[in-house]
Amino acid sequence: MAFDEKMADRVRELIAPVTHSVEEKKMFGGLCFMVDDKMCVGVKADQIMLRIDPELTDGALEEEGCTPMVHGGKIMPGFIFVDNAALHTQKQLAHWVNRALAYNKFAAPSKKKKTAAKRK
Description:
With 120 residues, the protein is of the alpha+beta class. It contains 4 helices and 6 strands, in the order H-E-E-E-E-H-E-E-H-H. It has a single domain (5-88), classed as Alpha-Beta Complex (Aspartate Aminotransferase, domain 1), CATH 3.90.1150.30.
């Protein structure tokens, strides 16, 4: 899976001091930072994915480099992409990562898939 390893390092630097409950998972063609078992920030080759407050999605999409996340032809409220070109400084990146971390406290956990052993 191709993702921007330097960007992943930058995201790690921002998340590490805030929580010890972070897990990195390779998914969606990139690296996803799961905070408290919830999708928070994803790093792809040329953009990051963020899970933010769905009420703030429209306003966020007006900011530089932002596009909506589209899945199955539908816009996913609360999920946006920000182009790496709009994230030159650590301050710019922190702006977005902090928004995702702030919402993470209130976000619903993703549904866990039952394993074959648990189904029986």
